[in-house]
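Write out the 3D structure for:
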Amino acid sequence: MFLFRLMNFIIGYVTIAIRGEAPEKFINMAAARGIFLWDIARPGEQIMRANVRLNAVRPLRHIARRTRCHFYITRRVGLPFFWMRLARRKALAFGAVLFVLGLYLLSSFVWTIEVTGNRRVPTKDILSVASAAGLNRGVPKWRLDCPAVERALKTKLPTISWAGVYVRGTRVTIEVVEKTFPEEKNQSPAHITAIKAGLIKEVLVFNGHAAVKEGDTVVPGQILISGIIPPPEEPGPEQPPVPETQREQPVPRRPTYVHAAGIVRARVWYEGYGEAPLVENGERFTGRQVTRVCMKIKSREIILAGPQKIPFLHYQTETSVKKPPPWRNLQLPVELVISKNREVESYRLVRDRAEARRLAGERALQAIQKQLPRGARIVHKQLDELVVKEPESLVRVKAFVESLEEIGTEQPFTPGEESQNQAPAASPPSQP
């Protein structure tokens, strides 16, 4: 079907309307003489419409006289007719050719360069090395040597392990992969201290000396795992005495300073507050939106797409502005403004007290959820409605949550300090 349409377009065809007492004879005689007609339709009793190739129009005149019918051309389609119209408008043809050549010429240069994949290496350093290798804005694409730019990036930037340069239209993308270096472990003396108050549930020491045990109550700043390991204790009196000849000179016993490491989990309590009105008034999005694209030249705006007037009475607008990249010191005063206009409507929502209590409880739990650290596990939660003396159109709920979480954090210290600045033990926090 596609080849048939393409061949008809190249050769050219016309749509003819056949009038007469018996247009069917016209169709039958044309088919008998090998003239191909297609898309035959009958819009009226004494009229028929069909498509025929351009080189078969002349033989149809003899058939029309034989069948006492006449036909006329209603539409001309194909390359010959297009060429005839174009020949009468030489200036238009010349302008079209010039536009295509200009578009091809402009698309043969690099206009935008973007860098992806870099985290530690600054983008300006990558662009500087690429510029020295021949990659600049405005350079012809046939002069761009992508492998040479990749080699220059890997050679002059030692922290890059791989680089790729890809040309997509007028945009060049530089993708880099940085080398991964093993992180050096911090071995300076440090304690593990509490970042919040809680009741110790589990202590797992990897390095250091445990300063608390299960069941202890701690406050923020208190040392949980000490980075000061005390010296071993003196031998007790029950041990047999050592002969004087085998006795060694006494060595002063000193504590060992280490970088404490371990896991300390504790029970922590949180409080949250939430409220929900019984009658709520506000605005919400309806789901309908229109997008308008404008080209702004200085203070003048030209609408390229979208409606001239926003069809909504109340709406909110989100606007994004795109500017062409600067060329040397030239900044074009042209902007592409894309605005999304979303319709809003006013609403009034009436809730019963049970629904408002459920919503207020969810909001109270959401307020607590924002305070919970990653990895915390909720073991208990309780919701209590706050009752006031005077009735009001508002339901207030207070939430109590108990979680099991890790509360330790590293706290460096200087060896030789006389005091560890350990906070005194506090009374257990109130439980709901």
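The mean pLDDT is 84.
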